[in-house]
Amino acid sequence: MHIKMTRKRVAIVILLIIVVPIIYNKVSGQITGAIQKKLSLAPKEVVVDSPKNENVFVSAEATGRVEAKYSVDVIARVPGFLIKKYFKEGDFVKKGEILFQIDPREYQLEVNNARANVNQYSALLTNAQQELDRANALIKEDLISRSDVDQSLATRNQNKALLEAARQQYELARVNLSYTNIKSPIDGRIGKVNITEGNYVTATSGSLVNISSTDPVYVSFSLKGDDYVNLLRASNQFKDVQVQIQFEGGRWYDKTGTIDFVDNKIDKDSGSISLRAVFENDRGWLVPGNYMKVKLIAPKTVEYMTIPQSCTKGDPMSGYYVWVVQDNKAVRKDIKVSDSINNNWIVTEGLSLDDVVVVSGIQNIMTEGQKLKIIDKEAYEKTLSAGN
Predict the structure, then answer these.
(1) 7, 256, 270, 341: least surrounded by Cβ within 10 Å?
(2) How many folded domains does the chain comprise?
(3) Residue whose C-alpha is closest to residue 321's, from 310, 339, 334
């Protein structure tokens, strides 16, 4: 059958070709939106679990610095010209070993003069004592007056005092002479010489050289306040805490240190507290000034509340939070964490053991108050195991 296409019919056909797809798209979009809306209103499935209490071995890490137990600046105790040095820079020296010599001639003369004064006053005292003895014998026979005896006694006592002063001066001269031999006050490694031979030195000239002890050594470091409290809870006042140190290359030192100093307060600016450990260093591997990684391990366990790390959202800067279920609805809870263990966070604030935490299906939660379909974690794991 032949249909005659008039201009009007052609226009109607074109209009239908344009309008029908538009109407179809609109209607289908509305239908799809209604279906999606209905689906979105349906509770989302989430797997839940409660926080757990775990017994955890407490540890902490910090950056420490090696320090000499003793560090001594050697200075001149008497003035004079340095005439000799008895060591090489960088040597190990023993306590009492001679390091420098100051020109001793002037001090030897003072010793000689002081000794002569002692001999002189000793002779005078002997003579005065003899005069006093004669006076005491004569007064018994009433041959001299009491004033003569008193004069002899005064002369004897004066010479006795002069002899004692001369002996003290002699001892001081000997001490000053001994100071011309400048000796090492400790065992240790000697550093770079600051004042060389030929210079005139006094006690105000400053350090001639520095000596640092090498065995044992200190490692000083600071702990965050929270780490300090956690370790304190798990130890006997830090006395039984093991301290390990690691070199820059990653190798751990093969000796364990012990805490020998804990400061009495937490610094208000840094929020940390200063501690110090002591280490044996018989091979000299620990060099003062070197920085080390420090790890502290407490001997006792402490009970902490934990949750899986995978169920938390956020970051260390903005903070972490979790979704919990209350009345079958999603509720956000901000939490504080202190450390991680076995892929779990240790929770210090924000949760209780009674909370029901979403541990899987977090991506299904879009907003607080959203309805949820709860699946117990234990039942969920049994279902997975059966499926496998």
Answers:
(1) 7
(2) 4
(3) 334
